[in-house]
Amino acid sequence: MQKIDFTNTEIAFNDKTNGDLAWAKHLFTIIKSPLMVKTGKHLLNIALTIRFPIRWIVKPTLYRHFVGGETIDKCLPRVEKLSNSKVKSILDYSVEGADSEKAFNAVFDEIVRTIEITAQNPNVEFAVFKPTALVFPDILKKSGFDNVDLSELETKGLDNFISRVDQLCQIAHDRDVKLLIDAEDVWYQQSIDNVVVAMMKKYNGKKPIVWNTWQMYRTDRLQNLDETFQNARNDNYFVGVKFVRGAYMEKERKRAITGKYPSPIHPNKEATDKAYDDGLTLAMENIDICEIFNGTHNENSVQLLVNRIENKKLEPNDSRIWFSQLYGMSDHISYNLAHAGYNVVKYIPYGPVRSVAPYLIRRAEENTSIKGQTNRELSLLLQELKRRKKEL
Ligand SMILES: Cc1cc2nc3c(=O)[nH]c(=O)nc-3n(C[C@H](O)[C@H](O)[C@H](O)COP(=O)(O)OP(=O)(O)OC[C@H]3O[C@@H](n4cnc5c(N)ncnc54)[C@H](O)[C@@H]3O)c2cc1C
């Protein structure tokens, strides 16, 4: 079995200057502290609520590390830089908190631009969008339950959402662009799934254009994936499967306690890891009707898919299988995998500073709460800085 060497920091940080590394080291040292992140999140939320300017503090710090820029054009130099190391890009318009039909239409127009650029630029591999950027989330929540009547206004809002998603899928289909649809909180996800399944049936007859996301921290997702494959076989369409563990664990658990319903999340990390790996294995067994996007910073889940590719005697760069990490995180995985010949793509979030703030808070929290992840980033940065010093 090919073992990927994730510790090769020369490859991992090949396109970073010493200044970039020193800066990243500084940032990860700060966000390693739970107290700093908790306080920072609190202050940032207050600043957002009272519309206090945050640009001066956020732009040169978290934003600089985790975000590509404010516009597509600003991201393009990063796309080109990544492509020099054979890493492709996804331009992810990461605005959150749009709160009017006008704002949803503006987000829609921007997503169309990302689909167009994906069609034109060979270094941009997928387009993506987040469903709650296109509709009032409460409408998704309500419409996901059976027997809940929507008001006339809500019905109109839901129809607008479905129409926006349908148009995006149609454009992606016409431009032959793979379109990822992010997964969100459990209580929005049923409505999202209903729409995405309809789109897969409509647009995936020849290949996966529309991709849904499976959050494997959910106890019901492995079975859902299995059923999706069965339905796709029965109805003759392809499935685009984006795997993630899931980003909203703490919120979901708190809500389940408050709402007095069983937590939808696996009881522990081991159970989530097992579901994730079983999901990858199941998808590989169905590779004749699906394509796979392995969205993770977990080295074991990356190595497992590498092993499955080898077991099936597929080429490392089989066009149906992609590995992905977020911009600013786990370059040791992205660059070493790409160097070994696998298909790798980075999510590059972009957008105005204020609108991407919730995304940045999630990244900071994730890097604080995930056991070992920040330490891993820090130790690799230190290793590379040391290696370069020795070289001098
Ligand atoms: C390219 C990409 C796209 C993404 N898109 C989405 C998306 O559309 N929707 C979304 O929700 N997230 C998305 N994420 C974030 C993702 O869901 C994870 O939060 C993040 O990647 C960390 O998981 P991991 O597999 O990288 O790492 P790991 O460190 O192995 O796993 C951490 C994750 O394990 C789970 N976990 C941790 N502790 C426990 C516990 N005690 N019990 C049960 N489970 C636990 C949680 O999901 C946690 O985030 C994306 C991530 C990437 C890399």
Summarize the structure.
The protein contains 16 helices and eight strands.
Task: Give an overview of the whole structure.
- An eight-stranded parallel β-barrel has the order 1-2-3-4-5-6-7-8, surrounded by eight helices.
- The protein has helices at residues 9-12, 18-31, 34-49, 55-66, 72-84, 101-120, 137-143, 152-175, 186-203, 221-235, 249-259, 269-285, 299-311, 331-339, 353-369, 373-391; strands at 88-93, 124-129, 178-181, 210-215, 239-244, 290-295, 321-326, 344-350.
- The protein has 16 helices and eight strands.
- Helix 9 links the parallel strand 3 and strand 4 (210-215).
- It is α/β, with parallel strands linked by helices.
- Helix 8 (152-175) packs across helix 9 (186-203).
- The structure holds flavin-adenine dinucleotide.
- Flavin-adenine dinucleotide binds next to strand 4, helix 12 and strand 7.
- What small-molecule ligands were found? flavin-adenine dinucleotide
Write down the overall mean pLDDT. Answer: 92
Cα-atom Rg, whole angstroms?
A: 20 Å
Distance between the termini: 36 Å
What percent of the residues sit in helical stretches (DSSP H or I)? 55-70%
* Count of domains: 1
CATH topology (level 3) name:
TIM Barrel
Helix/strand/pairing class, anyone?
Answer: alpha/beta
What's the structural blueprint in terms of helices and strands?
Blueprint: H1 9-12, H2 18-31, H3 34-49, H4 55-66, H5 72-84, E1 88-93, H6 101-120, E2 124-129, H7 137-143, H8 152-175, E3 178-181, H9 186-203, E4 210-215, H10 221-235, E5 239-244, H11 249-259, H12 269-285, E6 290-295, H13 299-311, E7 321-326, H14 331-339, E8 344-350, H15 353-369, H16 373-391
Helix pairs in contact: 2-16, 3-15, 4-15, 6-8, 7-9, 8-9, 10-12, 12-13
The structure holds flavin-adenine dinucleotide.
Flavin-adenine dinucleotide binds at residues 182-183, 213, 215, 217, 244-249, 265-266, 268-269, 272, 295-298, 324-326, 347, 366, 370, 373.
